[in-house]
Amino acid sequence: MAKQLIISAPSSNAGKTTLTLGLLRLLKRKTKAVQPFKVGPDYIDPKFHKLACGQTGVNLDLFMMSEEDIHNNLNFYGKDSQVNCIEGVMGLFDGANKDKGSTAEMAKKLETPVLLVIDAKAVAYSVAPLIQGFVNFDADVKVMGVVFNRVGSERHYTMLQEACEDIGVQCFGYLANLKNIEIPSRHLGLNIKEIEKFDILIDEIADALETTMDWKAILDAAKEVDAAPISSEEKKLTKKIKFAVAKDEAFNFIYPQNITAMEQLGAVTFFSPIHDSEIPTCDFMYFPGGYPEVYLKELSVNKNMLHSIKEFATNGGQIYAECGGMMYLGKSIISEENESFEMVNFFDFEATIADKKLHLGYRTSTINEHIFKGHEFHYSSLIEDNETATEATITNARAGDTTTKIYKKQNVMASYVHHYLGTSEILLQLINEINNKA
Q: Which UniProt keywords apply (predicted)?
């Protein structure tokens, strides 16, 4: 019997990532098998999760995934877990449309209690109505209790405890206002090596929590869950598909479910556009997003790899590329300093990050009769765009029009949208669209 809880907060930057990472490390020290999850389309926090406990966080998203798929993910990735620790997104009730897709909605769908992280730096007894409001706002959202962050002293914590006692909410402890403890929750320039530098900070957080937070009481208050059978449909394939996935410092924004879906349909080989000289033998190539703008020189000087990819694409090879992967397949990428670096030169456009502009939001892409869900998050733009976009309708979370495009040239499809391809059914639909000659 495993335990399951959701960690959330009244707002962003309250400390839920800090608390989550400290708890994950602490549970690992206590030899608890823990599987982290992350609400929403986040690629950064799951990397921190792996640093904290050795297991990559798995995204759970009510916009991109069906409820059945979410439960399948919990059962599949948490099958050997003693604790499923789900980190929320933004504030508890913040969704794409009111509370739709929020952590609160996820808590209701999963019938899982919420541990509320409260930033106490500038508040004492006044925290009582804040907590009470979150506890009472939606009776279907069960708040198990609170942990306070950035507490200044024992006396400060006593006042916070008194506030909890007076409103009947359990307090599990606190994290002191530690100096130089700042975990970035979202930063497109934060690469893997920089994330690893936070390992010592996670240790410090876990050290502090072990003395000031009752982690056993938190697990006692968490939901007990039994592993359920995973709903799946056996795919009958005439042949196994050989997938090649770009994965290195430059390309690593990958949902674990996308890789699992590929493994259900065939075999997956990873390769590095930076370090390898040519692509592996494959039927289908996947270029995820990542940090190509940080490694422009390394990508550009690897001419053998650039030629190998272009030859594969030109000769009818199947490729799907998103965001940074799409930029890489263009003619060039222009750096922040306005320096141009040659890339694969398959698509007739250039990408630039010289004039940064944030593009952010959920996307629903309708291509023929198939619907794909995903999100955009990028600062770059395409210029000198001479490619013709495929006929697709791409809307935002409120069904409004967007300027986002999906490109299709021969058997290569690319877009700024990070699409969720986490079931074999969705992945096969994408492959069929790529092979569609219409």
A: ATP-binding, Cobalamin biosynthesis, Glutamine amidotransferase, Ligase, Magnesium, Nucleotide-binding
